[in-house]
Amino acid sequence: MKKIRPIFLLSSLIFLLSVPYEIFALNGKNVLDLERSRELLLDGYIQSDFDNHQLAIEYFTEAIRLNPNNFYAFFSRAYSRNKIQDIAGAWDDLNRVLEIDPNIGVALYNRAIVNAKLGHKFSSIRDYSKAINKNIELKNAYASRGILKSNIGDIQGACFDWQKASENNNEKATSWVQKYCLPNISEEFQKKVNTKVFMANARRKYFDGEIKEACNYYEQAKINGYKANNFRDKLTLMIITNPMCFVF
To answer: Which pLDDT score is estimated for 248?
Structure first.
């Protein structure tokens, strides 16, 4: 499934061009060098634009040291951290942005993406909902929230969100609505969602140490048609899961 690309970079540019510089001085006692912090922010932005993300992070970090309320620097560093797969670091930076200003819709949208990458499904859904309420990236926010809802078994919610994404010109969501949701929710989709939920519960129970319950969910998934899609999963089932569950 095609991943929706975060809009960190475009959003940073919009912020830089549209918001007065006074925003950097939200808390005067923490501002050590406002002017230099802005210069480093722009240097970092240039490096980020050329995909030199490690160097960009160094600029953004120094900009933050000189002005702890420079939320543009936190926002931009989150983008670069995301690009080098430092997802936890991006999450931390976006949390800091939203501590400084809880009403930045684009930061909520971006944190929803990061939460999904970290496996925080419900937190991601909440952030997408807040972004949607602020009319941020509606075609992608609705589509992504629909995927997350399908992953937790909320089929009606998934179809509703994909329909909304379709109304906002998301072609992929339109194809999902036509394939899975109209005129009624298809049995194939119902089966896929149930299988996904069974396997998610099996993994959760396994990591909680409840092996018998994990195996019960795994058996339900198999009855529902579950098959491993890649070599690693097939190997795991063959070497670990099937022998373990045979005992139970």
So the answer is: 60
Phi, psi at 32, each rounded to 5°: -95, -40
Beta strand spans in the chain (E): none
Q: What would the pLDDT profile of 109-153 be if each residue is shown by its tens digit?
A: 999 999 999 999 999 999 999 999 999 999 999 999 999 999 999
DSSP-derived letter for residue 120 is -
Which region, left, alpha or beta, applies to residue 86 given φ > 0 means left and ψ of -120 to 50 means alpha? beta
| Helices and strands (H and E) in the chain: how many | 14, 0
List, in order of start, the domains of the chain with CATH numbers: 8-136 (1.25.40.10), 138-185 (no CATH), 191-247 (no CATH)
Burial tier of 51 (Cβ tally within 10 Å: 0-12, 13-18, 19+):
exposed
Question: How far is residue 98's CA from residue 104's CA, in Å, rounded to a whole number?
Answer: 7
The CA–CA distances, whole Å, from 165 to 22, 45, 112, 142, 176 equal: 36, 31, 16, 5, 10
